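Example 9 (inverse folding). The structure is encoded as follows.
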């Protein structure tokens, strides 16, 4: 679609006001618009409205929607298991020039099959903050975010303003693993894991899978099999046998091969997260 107006508001309020008009849509990193074209003739650039901040609050890490993937490092996010998972997910996204453009909000809103941040958000029990003119900010849990594509679930004037991550207490371990055919290709499988261990027993497990279904999903049967016992390699291997996600067809690899790779990647990711949670005692 031909772009007739490109607007640079300087505040969130101004951006929300502009987005409430017809035929208008937000643009952030522009990586989709440059490949697929604009969705509306009027584009509102949201990179100068104060959404490029990271805030470490009480029990929560808030990452503004305009923060670039390249800035999702432990240096900017601080040291926590949650920050580590986001940083690991972001570090392997696309290429360095693209990571300098891709934003957190764009990655969550576009929600393509291989998007990495929604997978990490799902494993971290995160919420996505959404705002629109004349309404109070809304928090949408990552589980709801991936259940229905945001393009269908949200009004077109809604803007993703932040990714909010609860910083959970206890002995936590995380890991983000992906499989792809070459370093610059999209993932064929990605797995985000967050586990909490208390007195040697797994008390919480979240295993999120990306790139294998149209939108990320949780491996709930695997999570249930992990909780309630020690995270030994034998228990982890047994839990992964409960993996019951049907892998979508992909022209690069047969579902059978990808299912096998998914199981191996999931096992490795859980093992690494467990070792991090227990300081290598798992
Ligand atoms: C070659 C290539 C390889 C890639 N590889 C990966 C990869 O391995 N992993 C990965 O995770 N990503 C990857 N990406 C990035 C991903 O596919 C999207 O291009 C990117 O996440 C979009 O972010 P953006 O900030 O550029 O959004 P934009 O292109 O600016 O916008 C994308 C869409 O989201 C909407 N939007 C943007 N910001 C907001 C907001 N705050 N609120 C509401 N709607 C918004 C826009 O209106 C538009 O419809 C790759 C991209 C390319 C081009």
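The amino acid assigned to each position is listed next.
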């Amino acid at each position: 679609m031909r772009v007739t107006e490109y607007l640079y508001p300087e505040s969130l309020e101004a951006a929300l006001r502009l987005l409430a008009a017809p035929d208008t849509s937000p643009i952030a990193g522009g990586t989709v618009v440059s490949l697929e074209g604009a969705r509306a003739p009027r584009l509102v650039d949201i990179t100068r409205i104060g959404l490029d901040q990271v805030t470490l609050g009480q029990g929560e890490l808030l990452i503004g929607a305009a923060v670039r993937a390249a800035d999702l490092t432990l240096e900017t996010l601080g040291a926590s298991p949650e920050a580590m998972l986001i940083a690991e997910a972001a570090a392997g996204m696309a290429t360095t020039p693209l990571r300098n453009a891709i934003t957190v909000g764009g990655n969550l809103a576009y929600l393509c099959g291989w998007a990495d941040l929604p997978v990490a958000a799902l494993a971290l029990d995160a919420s996505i903050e959404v705002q629109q003119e004349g309404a109070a900010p809304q928090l949408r849990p990552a589980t709801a975010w991936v259940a229905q594509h945001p393009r269908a679930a949200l009004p077109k004037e809604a803007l993703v303003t932040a990714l909010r991550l609860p910083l959970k207490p206890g002995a936590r371990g995380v890991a983000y693993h992906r499989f792809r055919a070459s370093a610059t290709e999209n993932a064929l499988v990605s797995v985000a894991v967050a586990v909490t261990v208390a007195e040697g027993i797994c008390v919480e497990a979240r295993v999120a899978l990306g790139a294998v279904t149209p939108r990320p999903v949780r491996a709930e049967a695997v999570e249930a099999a992990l909780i309630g016992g020690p995270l030994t390699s034998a228990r982890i291997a047994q839990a992964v046998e409960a993996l019951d996600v049907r892998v979508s067809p992909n022209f690069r690899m047969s579902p059978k091969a990808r299912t096998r790779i998914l199981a191996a990647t999931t096992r490795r990711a859980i093992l690494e997260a467990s070792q991090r949670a227990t300081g290598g005692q798992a």
